[in-house]
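Go through this chain for my students:
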Amino acid sequence: MSEQLKISSSPHIRSKATTSNIMMWVAIALLPATAFGIYNFRDTHAWLVVIVTTAAAVLTEYIYEKLMHKPITIKDFSAVVTGLLLALNLPPTAPLWMGVLGSVFAILVVKQLFGGLGQNFMNPALAARCFLLISFTGRMTSFTYDGISGATPLAAIRANVEAGNSALAGVNSMDMLLGKIGGMIGETSVIAIMIGAIILILMGIIDLRIPGTYIVAFALFIGIFGGFVDGIGFFNIPYMTAQLCGGGLMLGAWFMATDYVTSPITKKGQIVYGIILGVLTGIFRLFGGSAEGVSYAIIFSNLLVPLIERVTLPKPFGKGGEK
């Protein structure tokens, strides 16, 4: 009874959800994609990349907070999620030092130097991925599957279009759906990613507003503007399917675009945010210099979140009406 009589400033909404619980469920939801990625590449090095990258993120946060005499927050699982997401966005053959460097950049530069959890202006894992991609392009775009080095399906599509061949020559959408392809550790299997997404939805961690809008906006953009790419045509369903299943779209839409800190809190803002994500990803993939574009689309949209929230902030009751 005494706990109920303690009055603090509004709002007086009680919730059992805590940061540690939310982050723990996100980490659990990432396990299917993690396990499949390790199995898919059948390489113990991929497992080491996941372990070392995640451990480096947690250790970096602990050391920084210890040195700065701040409360130790590693128990909230946010550093675990950042490290795990970064690992899933690395090639299975990435050297371990690269995962460590990316984790230090994500936790120290993007998160802690801006005030810690809740103060970072962009997704730390994706910021670190882009940092590594710019710094070590060759290693970040080198993929081996079944012992054979080759291009990812999205890169193959881009090469086919530039060579004037059929865009989907040598590309199997079913393999992309199941994950029998090369790529980053955690992005290959749409099914494994969707299992994790369903877990998050059932636990109430995320809803369909951002990822649903993102995926639909991207599909429409690809369907319309893909017609301007030679040999594809408007609303080419096989081409749209390959684009949806390929690269980091699904992992980004369900696990990174929905990050609480770097996404809008208003309902209208989340719709606008999803549309911007879809359009930017489509622009980067169709007309950019790279076959992928999810990471850049998300971190660029992160920068627009304050503006999106300002424009879509609902008016207080009784305010803003016509006189």
Summary: The longest strand covers residues 144-145. The radius of gyration is 21 Å. The mean pLDDT is 89.
